[in-house]
Specification:
Elements: H1 2-11, H2 14-28, H3 30-45, H4 47-56, H5 61-75, H6 84-101, H7 103-110, E1 117-118, E2 122-123, H8 132-151, H9 157-174, H10 179-210
Antiparallel strand pairs: 1-2
Helix pairs in contact: 1-2, 2-10, 3-6, 4-5, 8-9, 8-10
Length: about 210
């Protein structure tokens, strides 16, 4: 709450404060996110080898598990590396959500000059009557999950997740104060840009090594 109050003192706008808070949280957790992306790319690179192991030991799960772990060890890959960043970020997200849900506490913290409006257009302490922010949060969630599934083509379940997650976000956001889907929206845009930059850097490095 103190962080959000600090950003409000700079902007005097609740929406801009949420945007700055989201960016700050994403920057703080950026090293963890980069590790997650690196782990995802490493898993993608060994996908053909994993496929061969699955075909070779399709009738023996014990040997398959042992061979897979040996492959991870050989390639110096930690299969849990992609999950740990999410686990670390989860308490941070819960704290942010609690703050954004309890707008009246922000009003008490800042005083009579506090306004929960975004650019004087939308009260972020209430649900979005036009569903604009929830829909945008859903659309950006779709783009973000498409980026993830493109990096993990071997995981067939990602296709279903790509389709369901945006609808779940929209349905969930419609009944929440608009400040929460705004947080999701900005966080999604940050992640989309981050994945794009990483992909561009990777493509340039690949082109450089091949030149």
């Amino acid at each position: 709450m103190e962080s959000l109050a600090f950003f409000y003192s700079l902007t005097n706008d609740y929406g801009l404060s949420i945007i700055l808070l989201t960016i700050a949280v994403r920057l703080i957790t950026l090293p963890l996110s980069m590790k997650q992306i690196a782990s995802t790319r490493a898993m993608q690179e060994i996908a053909p080898e994993r496929k061969k192991l699955e075909e070779k030991y399709k009738d023996d799960k014990e040997k398959l598990n042992k061979a897979t772990m040996e492959l991870y060890k050989e390639k110096n890959i930690n299969p849990l590396a992609g999950c740990l960043p999410l686990l670390v970020q989860f308490p941070v997200l819960i704290s942010v959500f609690q703050v954004l849900r309890e707008t009246e506490l922000m009003a008490e913290r800042i005083g009579e000059h506090f306004s929960p409006e975004f650019m004087g257009l939308l009260d972020l302490s209430q649900t979005d009557p036009y569903f604009i922010i929830p829909i945008l949060a859903g659309l950006t969630t779709y783009v973000q999950t498409k980026q993830t599934s493109a990096q993990q083509p071997q995981q067939g379940g990602m296709g279903m997740m790509t389709m369901l997650m945006p609808f779940m976000i929209v349905a969930f956001s419609i009944g929440l104060p608009a400040g929460l889907p705004l947080y999701w929206l900005v966080g999604n845009l940050f992640s989309i840009g981050q994945h794009y930059i990483v992909a561009q850097v990777g493509a340039r490095e690949g082109g450089g090594t091949g030149a």
